[in-house]
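Repro:
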Amino acid sequence: MKTREELQAIRERAKAALAVRGSEGGIRVVIAMGTCGIAAGARETLSALIEELAQRGISDVTVSQTGCKGLCDKEPVVEVHLPSGQVITYGGVTPPVMRRIVAEQIVNGQIVSQYVIGTETEAC
């Protein structure tokens, strides 16, 4: 049996993770979770993203999932949708790469060009 304090800590961590996944903010991060993405490690990448955002206290980023993007050889694939309408698509995003994207792009606004596989501008 867990102590009351341990259960409270687990509850707080879960609440923080849910807040990150459902927040309304300027940046939206979408992880492709098709079969090929999951096989390539997309679940671990998603977990790393949520953990990194929670650790840094970032709550204004929306995190979501999508199905197959048709880029099986580039999985795990992550899209970062910026408030400007620009979408940066990253490929080969392992958990360490995801943490780097959070640090460099989400926190400091610098694209991690080494992993970029495409960019586009969303139509309004």
